[in-house]
Amino acid sequence: MAIEIFYDSFVEFLEGLAESDEKKHAMHKELTEENSTSDYCTWYLRVLSATFFKADPERFLPYLEGGYVDIYSYCQQEIEPMGKECTMVQVLALAEVFQVRVDIEYLDGHEFPSDNFALAKHSFGPETAATTLSLLYRPGHYDILYPKKELTH
Amino acid sequence: MTSESPDNDDGLTNAEKYQQTQAQLEKIEQEVKATQPLTSEQLDIATLKELYPADEPASKYFLLGINALDKRYEKIRKTRGDGNCYYRSFLYNLCEAICGNQSELERVIKFGAYGTVRSFGGFGAQQCTTLIFIAWSGSYILTVLATLFSCYHSQRIQPIRHLCRRIRGNGN
């Protein structure tokens, strides 16, 4: 009952935001509010990733780090808790869950092999995905990148 | 040795040391919150250079990498370094990406309302609670996507709510 009350009141609040002309500003404000939407949705994405792991344990078990021998323990300790850093396998899982392409540029300070200073880029998710996300990885951290428009056409 | 007995050189008990550590962690957390928004505004790529002093040898290839990024990318949006940065980055960028794509928005909404439970169906009774909460949480994020971008009228959200209520009812 408590969950339903919370859900209904929050949906009503969001419906009010939808009538504003400043949609992108409203979204930004919503997702930067402390202890609110961003946290709730982040936790949902974690649970979704964990469920994806559990749905195909044989596929993901060989890639578990930290000495885990079963998917459920790994998910409970490494994916579901807020604040736990993401591994490459979780990056893959979330891309496949939503069937989107995630391109990640790696700025990790490695020595460039030639004069062509191009960062390593890895892509996750289906190649034919209609939606592509662009992220930047620095050791222990991810940010969002926005490709130059002339390079996306 | 009890938790009340000093057990180290600084004379603090285990309990006192734990409290001291907790206070430090909370202070760090407050500093992070004060200096880093959950998600920043769009910033120039060059702002990354502030993190890598040019006079430090270890910065060399980071700075070259930033120059390479500047050729391909227009802006960067930073997320808070709290261990959730990938999920926050994914969430924000996904919302931006599907906002201008009606078919993608509909696909994500359909996935969240129906596909979530279907895709992960076959779990036993012990997982029902998880699935119900996923369905509830999923409708939460879908509502954020749908209403914030006005791609769906509010009456279209009703079927999602009804689905979640039916799922919650079936799980009791």
Features:
heterodimer; A: 153 residues; alpha+beta; 4-stranded mixed β-sheet; 7 helices; 4 strands; 16% strand; B: 172 residues; mainly alpha; 6 helices; 2 strands; 62% helix; 8% strand
- Count of beta strands of chain A: 4
Physical arrangement of strands within the biggest beta sheet of chain B: 1-2
Q: Name the helix and strand elements of chain B from N-terminus to C-terminus, one letter apiece.
A: HEHEHHHH
Beta-strand proportion of chain A: 15-25%
In total, the number of strands of chain B is 2
Order of helices and strands of chain A: HHHHHHEEEEH
Q: What is the share of helical residues of chain B? A: 55-70%
- Which bin fits the share of residues in helices of chain A? 40-55%
Distance from N terminus to C terminus of chain B (CA atoms, Å) equals 48 Å
The spatial strand order of the largest sheet of chain A comes to 2-1-3-4
Largest interface here, residues on each chain?
A: A-B, 76 and 77 residues
Major sheet of chain A:
4 strands, mixed
Mean pLDDT of chain A: 80
Termini separation of chain A comes to 49 Å
How many helices of chain A? The count is 7
* Assembly category: heterodimer
Biggest β-sheet of chain B, characterized?
2 strands, antiparallel
List low-confidence stretches of chain A: 1-21
Relative strand content of chain B = 5-15%
Give a topology summary.
The complex is a heterodimer of chains A (153) and B (172).
Chain A: H1 2-18, H2 23-31, H3 37-55, H4 57-60, H5 71-79, H6 88-98, E1 101-106, E2 120-124, E3 132-138, E4 141-147, H7 149-152
Chain B: H1 14-35, E1 39-44, H2 60-72, E2 73-79, H3 85-99, H4 102-119, H5 128-148, H6 154-171
Antiparallel strand pairs in B: 1-2
Helix pairs in contact in B: 4-5, 5-6
Explain how this protein is built.
The complex is a heterodimer of chains A (153) and B (172). With 153 residues, chain A is of the alpha+beta class. Helix content of chain A is 48%, strand content 16%. Chain A contains seven helices and four strands. A four-stranded mixed beta sheet of chain A has the order 2-1-3-4. In chain A, strand 3 and strand 4 form a beta hairpin. In chain A, helix 3 crosses helix 6. The termini of chain A are far apart. The N terminus of chain A is likely disordered. Chain B is built from six helices and two strands, in the order αβαβαααα. Chain B is flat, with a radius of gyration of 24 Å. Chain B is mainly α and 172 residues long. The N and C termini of chain B lie far apart (48 Å). Chain B is 62% helix and 8% strand. Chain B has a two-stranded antiparallel sheet with strand order 1-2. In chain B, helix 4 runs antiparallel to helix 5. At the A-B interface, helix 1, helix 2, helix 3, helix 6 and strand 3 of A face strand 1, helix 2, strand 2, helix 3 and helix 4 of B.
